[in-house]
TrEMBL record:
Residues 37-76 form the Leucine-rich repeat-containing N-terminal plant-type domain. The lineage of its organism: Eukaryota, Viridiplantae, Streptophyta, Embryophyta, Tracheophyta. The chain crosses the membrane at residues 12-33. Keywords: Leucine-rich repeat, Membrane, Repeat, Signal, Transmembrane, Transmembrane helix. The keyword Repeat applies. Residues 81-184 form the Disease resistance R13L4/SHOC-2-like LRR domain. The keyword Signal applies. It comes from the Eukaryota. This is Leucine-rich repeat-containing N-terminal plant-type domain-containing protein.
Length: 196
């Protein structure tokens, strides 16, 4: 009798413990989601801040009235409300790409082609581990291809042609196992790609 009562009270207190853990887990989860959501929003605003010319006014929708998932040219995942695609192609945009782009950690597709972006491709691009498609062609990017690109292990399509890039094509690009297409014509690059 006494034994079963004790095991009952033990299981009751472990139930309490379990619900406390449960509660804590959910609070942390909610906090994490909130923080990450804000990270994407901040990153997009930093990107906007570095765009110096926007003749079509496409960045006007990137304002606090709307959730960033409703901003023009931004696509979010339906479940987690993180940015998965950014399509700023052919919008006559000038300026540079903010290093904050690397904080868009759920980004899978980045289209920046056919604009007047200049300065260097930020090293932080290598932080986007989910990136599959990277279109930078037909711009005025200068400097070297950042070696951090090797960290984008999911990269499938990588188009760089028609920029002002210099230096060597990183020899290890062939280590990107999923890479199917790469283009870098009309730059001042030297070197060969090995392993493809
Ligand atoms: C925010 O963007 C929306 C969509 O383009 C626009 O209708 C609204 O006027 C903008 N708000 C401000 C304060 O600019
Ligand atoms: C490049 O962008 C301009 C401006 O939006 C557009 O008129 C032109 O058709 C685009 N070119 C290509 C090849 O997409
Ligand atoms: C985002 O990126 C910038 C520059 O890479 C960095 O300084 C910042 O701490 C990052 N994190 C957040 C949450 O904005
Ligand atoms: C790739 O990522 C690793 C781990 O985060 C980091 O230590 C390394 O410096 C990165 N490589 C480059 C070239 O950025
Ligand atoms: C590319 O090389 C050519 C010939 O050496 C040179 O005239 C041109 O200025 C270079 N362009 C860049 C962006 O370095």
């Amino acid at each position: 009798m006494g034994l079963s009562f004790r095991s009952l009270s033990v299981s009751f207190s472990s139930l309490c413990l379990l619900s406390i853990i449960h509660f804590l887990c959910f609070s942390f989860l909610a906090l994490a989601i909130h923080r990450n959501n804000n990270t994407d929003r901040l990153a997009l605003l930093e990107l906007k801040a570095k765009i110096t010319d926007d003749p079509f006014g496409v960045m006007n929708s990137w304002n606090s009235t709307l959730h960033f998932c409703s901003w023009h040219h931004v696509t979010c995942g339906r479940r987690h409300q993180r940015v998965t695609m950014l399509d700023l192609s052919s919008l006559k945009l000038s300026g540079s790409i903010s290093p904050h782009v690397g904080n868009l950690s759920f980004l899978r597709e980045l289209y920046l082609e056919n604009n007047s972006f200049h300065h260097e491709i930020p090293t932080e691009i290598g932080n986007m581990r989910r990136l599959q498609i990277l279109h930078l062609y037909d711009n005025s990017f200068s400097g070297q291809i950042p070696a951090s690109i090797f960290n984008c292990s999911n990269l499938v399509l990588f188009y760089l042609h028609n920029n002002n890039l210099v230096g060597r094509i990183p020899a290890g690009l062939g280590s990107l196992k999923k890479l199917r297409e790469i283009s870098f014509g009309a730059n001042n690059l030297t070197g060969v790609v090995k392993g493809t």
